[in-house]
Amino acid sequence: MDDLREPALQGALHVLFVRSPLAHATITEVDADEAKSAPGVHGVFTADDVDLPPYASGGSLSGPTPPGLDRPHLAKGVVHYVGEPVVAVVAETLAQAQDAAEMVSIDYDPLDPVIDLDEALAGEKLVFPEAGTNVIGEAGELDDSLFDGCEVVVTEQIVNQRVAAASLEGRSAACAWEGDKVTLWLSNQNAQSCRDELMGNLGLPQDKLRVITPDVGGGFGAKIGSEQEAALLSMVSRKIGKPVKWVETRSENLVAMTHGRAQRHQITIGGSRDGRVQAYRLEIVQDVGAYPRMGAFLPAFTRMMASGVYDIPKVESRAQTVVTNTTPIGAYRGAGRPEATAAIERAIDLFAAEIGADPADVRRANLVKPEQFPYQTPGGMLYDTGEYIKGLDSVLEAADYASLREQQAKRRADGATKQLGIGLSSYVEITAPNNTEGETGHVEIRPDGSVLVLTGSSPHGQGHWTSYAMLVSEQLGIDLDKIEVVHGDTDLIPKGVGTMGSRSLQLGGTAVHRAAIDVKDKARKLAAEMIESDEADIELTDGKWQVRGAPNVTVSWADLAQKSADGLAADVHFVEDRPTFPFGSHLAVVEVDVETGKVEHLRHVTVDDAGTIINPVLTEGQRHGGIAQGAAQALLEEVSYDSDGNPQNASFADYAIVTAAELPSFELLTMETATTLNPLGVKGIGEAGTIGATPAVQNAVVDALSHLGVRHIDMPTTPQRVWEAINQA
Fold this sequence. Notes:
Elements: E1 13-19, E2 25-31, H1 33-36, E3 41-45, E4 78-79, E5 85-91, H2 94-103, E6 105-110, H3 117-122, E7 135-139, E8 152-164, E9 172-178, E10 181-186, H4 191-202, E11 209-212, H5 228-240, E12 244-247, H6 250-256, E13 259-271, E14 277-287, H7 298-304, E15 314-322, H8 337-355, H9 359-366, E16 375-376, E17 382-383, H10 388-399, H11 401-414, E18 418-428, E19 439-445, E20 451-455, H12 464-476, E21 483-487, H13 504-531, E22 538-541, E23 544-547, E24 550-556, H14 557-563, E25 568-574, E26 583-593, E27 599-609, H15 616-635, E28 667-669, H16 688-705, H17 719-728
Helix pairs in contact: 7-8, 8-16, 12-13, 15-16
């Protein structure tokens, strides 16, 4: 937002937040008098100055959330995590705001923090005493007889660690009032949903609130929905009478933006010694952080996708969500579905190791077969289409799996310092889980023959402009450079949902596609009238309308737009009958130094089948980014806290973001199994790589050391953690 050149933001003041340095404490005094009189300062705001209702609790897995968990705009009375905003300083320059923030004196009386999950479950210390519990939601029942009849039963506790979204652009916002209407510019994934949330918080009708999401530098789920900072900026701007803006620092981002994952799993898998899995149980404890936001619902996605790609007769899951004195948890690329895949894929490898079978053979024996689709899972999902066995076999063949196993055996026989690990994962994910909300598309021919496309999808690096323009160009024969795609402006596009859950192309793209077809149908009728010919004889050739076989008389798109009395345009709101289910298989090859614990990622071979491919370059880009993030979680990334709730990763100096130097060149195989649920045959691709990559890499690291007696290593598989596992084994 710092580089926005909007006229309404000329002379905008800078907002800076003073955030809590303690995880849990009573605020005994806030002294801001010196800061208020500092040079350039236009206002200093505390909780007592906020006249907005708190943000309602993010909900629960089961029934109403316990009382007292609503999220304040500025902490009042008690702080609940390091990074919670306590004071807002407004000044003419950022430097002046920083100087004034140093003058704010806040006295805290420390309280015992709740950090550990077992501590949270025990409830001896409470994050919110008025709630009477740290457990804010439970779902699912367990059956003691689930594993009756199984020859082999294996169980393990695993951790799907807390990670930071760490988007290229952190959170930011700008705000300007014009009379009684406010415009907010937000670095966000869904303008319309933000507007709707802010309407309630600010008490404004829809026509008095405009939200614009300009070029947004990444989101990964952590920018879904509005933040308390956005509403607070609106209030501050209104009270001061000037536009304001806020851009968080990277350190601020790492402690204050929502984190992802943060689940602990108890996995139990049972079956026969010939490799058939008969029963699977997944028990989840979800850390939601200090306030229940989207993290409170992530276990619902994990539970619904628990059985993955496997035809397992008996599957059950149970989840508990707990609050802790840590940064709140939100969505992060995959949002609950990667957690499910990581759990079942570790379970399959543990089961294979227990019966002495090759993990590829165990997978193949239990994968849902093509003739079983549409496939109803024990978790209640109806998978649309899939070729799971074909995907696995394609990856094994491309990687020369048999040769890799031979190389591994030789290194083991030679006692090599660097051992080879081969990891597999087969996955299915749900895309457009909020399909019933649909998405909007508008296509309009302008008088000069160019095209305006309006979409409710709001890109933040995915390339929607290109894909949607391609869909329109294919239908209308108009060059891409004459097609303008506009998004993220609630005045221009009042109805929309946004971009998350890999929903955009199958919902937003289909809406644009259908709108283009509707425009073409209208144009055909109008062209027939202008040419004075039968509509059935009119055809579109090279972007011009003519009578079939008689190219001497043509009508251009500009002619039609100028002739049309009510405009040559169409609006479509497309709703899919149910979600789609992309799938794939990943194979990772790693080298592990048994003397130092260092892991090197050597190869990564994947099938990521997301139905029909519209743009191969964009698809490949999404796969590359997803695989990199998935591998990073397996190898490097973790947000951690000490026992006092102090974050240990407040900068990129100690939060390990993956770079190209740590990754191999990905070997991407192509498969297209079209869905029948939309006319394009497309499924989502944005999160697929992340879901498949993480367990493949983790399984590879464990596999490299399995001959030494290593059974499991939690993520991230850092050199220290690997070295400790070797020595313990």
